[in-house]
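seq as requested:
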Amino acid sequence: MKPIRLVSGFLTVGLWTLLSRILGFARDMMIAAFLGTGPVAEAFLIAFALPNMFRRFFAEGAFNMAFVPMFSKKLEAGEDAEGFARDAFAGLAAVLIVFSVIALLAMPWLVLAMASGFAGDERFDLAVGFGRIAFPYILFISLAALLSGVLNAAGRFTAAAAAPVLLNVLFITAMILATKAGWPVGDALAWTVPVAGLAQLALVWLAAKRAGFNLKPRRPRMTPELKRLALIAAPAAMAGGVVQINLLVGRQVASFYEGAVAWLSYADRLYQLPLGVVGIAVGVVLLPDLSRRLRAGDTEGGRNAFNRAAEISLALTIPAAVALCVIPLPLVSVLFQRGAFGPEDTAATALAVAVYGLGLPGFVLQKALQPLFFAREDTRRPFYFALASLVVNAGIAIGLMPTFGFIAAAIGTTVSGWASVALLWFASRRMGVAATLDHRFRNRFWRILLASGLMGGLLWVAALALAPFLDLPTLRYGALAILVGIGMIGYFGIGQLVGAFQMADIRAALRR
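struct tokens:
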């Protein structure tokens, strides 16, 4: 994959992810308006988090990080990549069907593991009921993730990146229909989860079939290649488990504070926008590219791919992090404060947004650094690093909880994210030329910091000037749009002047 194609693939994934996250904001704005931070909202958020947690553990984490490099190398070498993918598809489906049946029976215990603070109140029964409805989503979305890995390895990013858009479209449609028909919004959301998973699976399965990969269901069989895949995936599975335990620590802390699960969830949506658009896009495109280059012995090309991915990541996420720290209150107020979501909810959510913002560049850098290990089929060291970050997160979140309350969960997440980056970075130093920073990256990095800092000052002044309009119901949307526009124009203008990036490079990539 040439550098321009790498950037083009990143932009394809990023733009579709951006659309999905925008629709996700619309979805969450509606959930906040209808349900606020009350028991139904918190119960649904925990129920929806359950299959998503295990999805990242099974598919996007352990399985795909092991599967994509092996599949990419087979594709590059002209071996039977489709047969390998078909066996992996059948094996994953069998494991997930058994796991889903067990999870449905054990749902009360799973809810307690996610949010023990729910025990003894109405949130617990609601979360168990919603969880049993929503959990089959894991089967459909995990198989969709495997098919997305097949498409990404083949250089076809559009369908896989567009699939999450369906989820948000269906959620929004369900809430509109529920309000018109008089159905409970919480129930409508829960039933939409498995339907959305099936829709996403259908989309990527058809795209894979058009790309020449017809992965029909069949009886699973244990082949030597699947055994090797399982051996490689096992450490990544443990690493994925540690990452999910990290998330559990935050939810457990939040569950003891009424409304905190929802506050952290809405804050998560804000920082997940740049993280999803940039970090996930870079990770999705970079892993198969690095795998192919290492297979071909193209060390210098691998170095260039890694540096450009890291450069783009920081050029887009450092200013986003500054914005989240400088103007969290206007963002949360305009996006979420309406209906059942009040001023106290806004203040608490804005605080969490600012704390998460401090960790945003670290979260994205992890997505650029991890493929250096996974492309070499090294899943053990990321596991050890994830374990270390778990200790950091738990120590901070639980240790600071008596003093700082619910926000200790966000502080732990941010600090542990930067700890992971430090460990990945120092370990990658031993990987040779492919993992070193080139002159262009080093030259542009400090310029990105300068442009982002100046943009932050500009945003702060603009927010003060627009403050009266941000409080007016009829004008606040326009005022926020102007504020965001000032930040974007200011950053890209300043960045061009100080040499943080070249707009011509971005335009060329977009044309391609």
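The mean pLDDT is 83.
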